[in-house]
Write a structure and sequence with these properties.
The protein has about 270 residues and is an all-alpha fold. It is built from six helices and no strands. Helix 3 runs antiparallel to helix 4 and helix 5 (about 130-155) runs antiparallel to helix 6. The chain is rod-shaped, with a radius of gyration of 44 Å.
Length: about 270
């Protein structure tokens, strides 16, 4: 019986569950810090690509909508282009902010970055030589049309004196209409050009906003993972120390039992 007990003590390794727990703690004692950091960077990189695509689409949609509205706007309505454009920019900013918050899983993740603003109102268009030439062309065309229109009046001696005022009035009206139409077209062209330039600036502000938020989120999430990893590492290390102590106690008890059995066996052999 003593020999069987000695063989059992020598073959058995006490604390198998404790050793398995110790191995698991050593493998995961940092809380898979490296893997989690890689996952965060990968997720934020995908978010950066998605947000860049969303910014490009928002810019194209805003420019297309504003230009389509400008094409049908009157001269008085063109003055409200900056206000309408800023309204669209504010709307898309809220949508992009919501997408950023969902990407980094933090509500209101805009930090200290200012909301994008259009740079400035479009400058007033100055009259150029083209405008003066347009007036001259309009007057010339109007006079020509006036001469054609008053030709029947010249056939009547009593109305012949009225041909000159009618010709001048028609020439002035034609010049005014042509100059006004040309000026409206020039104002619309200037507004379209200003919209494109302004949205280029706004797009850069959106991209800077996204870049700043994602970098700040990456730093915050990385710091949180590192802090959690340090806490888990300290906890795992403390538990490993406890397990090592328990394993030493089990090994000492096994050695004591084995020595006791060997003494008993030696005593029996001596008696025989």
């Amino acid at each position: 019986m003593i020999e069987v007990e000695i063989r059992n003590l020598r073959d058995s390794v006490p604390g198998a569950e404790l050793r398995a727990e110790r191995s698991q703690l050593l493998a995961d004692r940092d809380g898979r810090r490296g893997e989690r950091l890689v996952q965060v960077r990968s997720r934020l990189q995908r978010a950066r690509g998605d947000l860049s695509q969303q910014i490009a689409e928002a810019t194209r949609a805003t420019v297309a909508g504003a230009r389509a509205w400008v094409d049908t706007a009157s001269r008085a309505e063109l003055g409200s282009v900056p206000m309408r454009l800023q309204h669209e920019v504010d709307h898309h900013t809220r949508v992009i902010d919501a997408a950023m918050a969902a990407a980094v899983e933090v509500a209101g993740a805009t930090g200290y970055v200012a909301s994008p603003r259009i740079p400035e109102d479009p400058p007033h268009r100055r009259r150029r030589n083209e405008d003066r030439v347009t007036i001259l062309v309009g007057a010339s065309a109007g006079l020509g049309l006036g001469r054609i229109a008053v030709t029947p009046l010249e056939m009547i001696p009593a109305l012949e004196f009225a041909s000159i005022p009618v010709t001048l009035v028609l020439g002035g009206v034609a010049a005014w209409w042509l100059a006004r139409t040309r000026g409206l077209m020039a104002d619309r062209a200037q507004s379209r050009s200003w919209i494109v330039e302004s949205m280029s600036t706004v797009r850069a502000q959106w991209e800077q906003r996204v870049q700043s938020v994602l970098l700040e989120a990456e730093a915050d999430l990385g710091a949180a993972i590192m802090a959690e990893s340090r806490e888990q590492l300290a906890s795992a290390q403390a538990r490993i120390v406890e397990i090592d102590g328990e394993l030493r106690e089990l090994a000492a008890a096994r050695s004591g039992q084995l020595a006791s059995c060997e003494r008993d066996l030696a005593a029996l052999n001596a008696a025989l």
